[in-house]
Specification:
This protein is 77% helix and 0% strand. The protein has 247 residues and is mainly α. It has one domain. α3 packs parallel to α7, α3 packs antiparallel against α8 and α7 packs parallel to α11. The radius of gyration is 18 Å and the shape is globular.
């Protein structure tokens, strides 16, 4: 049983990561351009004062973007290649299929993540504890975005619709919220609107442990509680309302 699961995960990695990286290297450049371009803009506008925040925000964008991009891949395989039909009729569960695809998407993001980590080495300074907490935030965000991407892919009837979902969610989760800059830059009462996005809480944790936020600007315990709570709620809704077998 274990060997079958590993082989199914390996197949997902080969199809959605290895072959994609070999066949479409331009996608690797595209994945990196979005966060890098915002780093450049934020750095120029702030005259270098916010480069640390911008690099940390780019890491958040990379992990969220990777999970959301999975939506298009799943929808493409489901609608164009009818792969989901075959998986549903096989012993493979939705969880194993999603796990394999999630790992494959993370592998596809490795070149971008490595470059951003190099930038973080030079421009982001924190303790080992901060690095561990940031890793936990990024991992939780990735799981959140993967589950969201999976849920929307089961509802999507066309790859074009999936691209629209990705565009909207990317703006709402990584561009508009204070991911690349401290939330204190948003005047009241507009600041409350930013808390609609889960990435605001993630950025609050990251910026707090790195010392980019003044004391009292963010409560790490509350941010963690909200982020975990939203993830659990999304997981429950996705598992109950997805159309995995309704195809």
């Amino acid at each position: 049983m274990g060997n079958k699961i590993l082989s199914q995960i390996n197949a997902s990695i080969l199809v959605n990561a290895v072959y994609a990286m070999q066949g479409y290297p331009a996608m690797l450049i595209s994945n990196l351009l979005a966060p890098i371009s915002i780093i450049i803009v934020v750095t120029l506008v702030s005259r270098g004062a916010l480069i640390g925040e911008a690099v940390a925000g780019a890491l958040i964008t990379a992990f969220v973007g990777g999970g959301l991009s999975l939506q298009a891949d799943l929808a493409h395989l489901k609608n164009d290649f009818k792969l989901q039909d075959m998986v549903v009729s096989s012993p493979t569960s939705a969880a194993v299929y999603l796990l394999g695809m999630a790992i494959s998407e993370l592998i596809f993001q490795i070149p971008s993540i490595v470059i951003l980590l190099v930038l973080a080495f030079f421009f982001v300074h924190g303790t080992l504890f901060a690095a561990i907490e940031i890793f936990g935030v990024l991992l939780l965000l990735y799981v959140f975005s993967v589950v969201l991407g999976f849920f929307l892919s089961t509802l999507s009837s066309d790859i074009i619709q999936s691209w629209a979902f990705i565009g909207i969610l990317s703006i709402l989760m990584t561009t508009i919220p204070p991911v690349y800059y401290p939330i204190t830059y948003i005047p009241m009462p507009w600041r409350y609107i930013a808390y609609i996005s889960p990435t605001t809480y993630a950025a609050g944790i990251v910026q707090s442990v790195l010392g980019y936020l003044p004391p009292g600007a963010s409560n790490i315990a509350i941010d963690w509680a909200v982020l975990i709570g939203l993830s659990l709620i999304l997981f429950a809704v996705a598992m109950k309302k997805n159309r995995w077998r309704d195809i």
